[in-house]
Design a protein that fits this description.
By secondary structure, the chain is an alpha/beta fold. The chain is built from eleven helices and nine strands. It is globular. It binds phosphoric acid mono(formamide)ester. Phosphoric acid mono(formamide)ester binds next to helix 2.
Length: 307
């Protein structure tokens, strides 16, 4: 993996994605040992800059960095001097002056990690930028799929829900198509961008036939916080037509693997009996996130020391 930053999946080659996944296999084995910590990043300082809310990504990055013995700084915009009017660039320059080597950043504006990469020397990892990309989520999703199926070639992966506002969807599309999977997007027409087939995916507005086709269904929540207009009549209406429930899955008599990046809105895009079923690998995704983020951080740090 020959990059200084991880800004998105779009700029990665399939071989680089597989290198990250292979490295994550090694780290997953390590973090399941009684002694979970390795000294790999003992001299590296990493700042986690979260300008938008997070549970999984923030904790997962922090744990990954601590497992690698890095020094970790955590910053949340909500209780920082951003509230007093400090700009993004001033905030980042001030944090970097404390001799920080890597920055993990989440921001509600698409392109912030790319913007920062042009202004600072530290390596940057995109932890989700608005509706643009969420590369480590796509990598942990791919890792979790490979654990189940060993290979991506010819695998049918459905991404169901609010595609238009989803950075998870875009990063998954780039990742899975590069790895050889067949990707189908499903949701109401208002939540699927026009012309997205140009990215090598198919589109369906029918959730039942999509589930029948899929080996894997990655279910996404409705991102009310990003919706600037009503995209469907009501959440009840959405749940009725696009929500995944056990009764529906059971009609196909196949063990479609169910994924969800979280946070879940139970009873809207997915029912509790599906989210908590044996078909669901939602908590495996969270577990795998630590190993995948260790791999990304480790590989980028290696590139820094090689410069
Ligand atoms: N999947 C994900 O990004 O979750 P968080 O928003 O909790 O980090």
């Amino acid at each position: 993996m020959n990059h200084k930053h991880l800004l998105g999946i779009k700029t990665l080659e399939a071989e680089e994605i597989l290198t990250i996944l292979d490295q994550a296999v090694q780290f997953k084995e390590i973090i399941n040992r009684p002694i979970k910590k390795v000294p790999s990043l003992r001299d590296i300082t990493i700042a986690n800059l979260f300008f938008e809310n997070s549970t999984r990504t923030k904790l997962s990055f922090e744990l990954a960095q601590k497992r690698l013995s890095a020094d970790v700084l955590n910053f949340s915009a909500s209780n920082s001097s951003v509230k007093k009017g400090e700009t993004l660039l001033d905030t980042v320059h001030n944090i970097l002056s404390m001799k920080v080597d890597m920055v993990v950043i989440r921001h509600s504006s698409p392109g912030v990690p790319i913007f920062l990469s042009k202004h600072i020397d530290a390596s940057i990892i995109n932890a989700g930028d608005g509706t643009h990309e969420h590369p480590t989520q796509a990598l942990l999703d791919a890792f979790s799929i490979r654990e189940k199926f060993n290979s991506f070639k010819g695998l049918n992966v459905a991404i169901i829900g609010d595609i238009i506002h989803s950075r998870v969807a875009l990063s998954n599309i780039f990742c899975l198509t590069k790895l050889g999977a067949n990707v189908r997007l499903c949701g109401p027409p208002t939540l699927i961008p026009k012309g997205i087939e140009a990215l090598g995916v198919s589109v369906s507005y029918d959730v039942k036939s999509t589930l029948e086709w899929a080996n894997v269904a990655n279910v996404l929540r409705i991102q009310m916080e990003r919706a600037d207009a009503p995209y469907f009549p009501s959440l009840n209406e959405y749940a009725k037509h696009f929500g995944i429930n056990k009764e529906m899955l059971d009609t196909f008599g196949k063990d479609t693997v169910i994924m969800h990046p979280g946070p879940i809105n139970r009873g809207v895009e997915i029912s509790t009996d599906v989210a908590d079923s044996d078909q669901s690998i939602i908590l495996d995704q969270v577990e795998n996130g630590v190993a995948v983020r260790m791999a990304v951080t480790f590989l980028l740090a290696q590139n820094r020391s090689a410069v």
